[in-house]
Amino acid sequence: MIVVKVGGSAGIDRRAVARDIAAVAASGEHVVLVHGASAETDALATTLGHPVRTLVSPSGQQSRRTDRRTLEIFAMAALGVETFFYVELLRASGAEALGLFGALSGPRKNVRAVEGGKVVMLRDDFTGKVERTDTDLLRALLERRKLPVIPPLAVSPEGEGLNIDGDRAAAAVASALHAEALVILTNVPGLLRDVGDPSSLVAAASLEEAEALAQGRMKKKAMAAREAAEAGVRSVILASGLVERPLSRALAGEGTRIARAAVAP
User: Fold this and answer.
1) Number of domains in the chain
2) Is residue 110 in a domain?
């Protein structure tokens, strides 16, 4: 079983991703797709006159400020655009894809941010974390040769929709399903020693090496890699989603393979 996370950054070729995922699934592999929605959310927020705001945590991590209106816009982008496109493209490529909202659940986070030099608690932020994956539902669908497509949204115990990190959501799904591999497709070739030099790609890294090399958004991916690996997922791969046959190429050795101890791909 393979869990694939496809980033929501601009430039990702949805058609190439869907075509390749469908081909891998047709070979007999069980596949679950978790996708992002960042670029579509930013564009839609601008169109609707509710500009994106970025939070900085006390530790320096940046994230999206998710008030209720931003959550609604995020859901429009994630479910109304990204899930829609992936289900449509996967079906056109022969895969029996189904979009799922509600398969992931967990609590709202206690979001703290630095504002005006002070640390404040944001009680109206709808950001959450995954604590439960509906594995019975996912396994039932996979046994019927369906391909679940999961947006980066969860439901709280109180029934509230929540914005969740797509990389860590994919790690949670991979962990819950005891997947053999978690493949994270993004807009860079993998982990780079020099972020400005694609030729500095690291082919294999331990969890510690990945965390040391990760910068910016890659920090969340390294965190997701650790969560998946520590839960027993044998292989976590960071690779480009900007190429033809991105999943097949990642499984064949392209990108960065992360494990508890670095091994050759």
Assistant:
1) 1
2) no
Give 19-85 as a 3 state SS string. HHHHHHHHCCCCEEEEECCHHHHHHHHHHCCCCCCEEECCCCCEEECCCHHHHHHHHHHHHHHHHHH
Q: Where are the alpha helices (DSSP H) in the chain?
A: 14-26, 38-47, 68-77, 84-92, 135-143, 166-176, 207-213, 218-230, 246-251
What's the CATH number where 136 sits? 3.40.1160.10
Residue 121 located in a structural domain? no
pLDDT digits (tens, 9 = 90+) for 209-255: 999 999 888 899 999 999 999 999 999 999 999 999 999 999 999 99
Tell me the CA distances in angstroms from 242 to 3, 122, 216, 246, 250, one per residue in order: 18, 36, 19, 7, 12
Q: How confident is the model at residue 113, as a pLDDT? A: 86
- Predicted TM-score of the model (pTM): 0.93
Q: Is residue 147 part of a domain?
A: yes
Print the domain residue range for 228: 2-51+66-104+128-259
What the block records as the tokens of 11 is 């430039």
Q: Inform me whether the pLDDT recorded for 192 exceeds 60.
A: yes
- Tens of pLDDT along 224-235? 999 999 999 999
Q: What are phi and psi of 9, to 5 degrees?
A: -70, 155
Percentage of the residues of the chain whose pLDDT score is greater than 70: 98
Query: DSSP label at 137?
Result: H
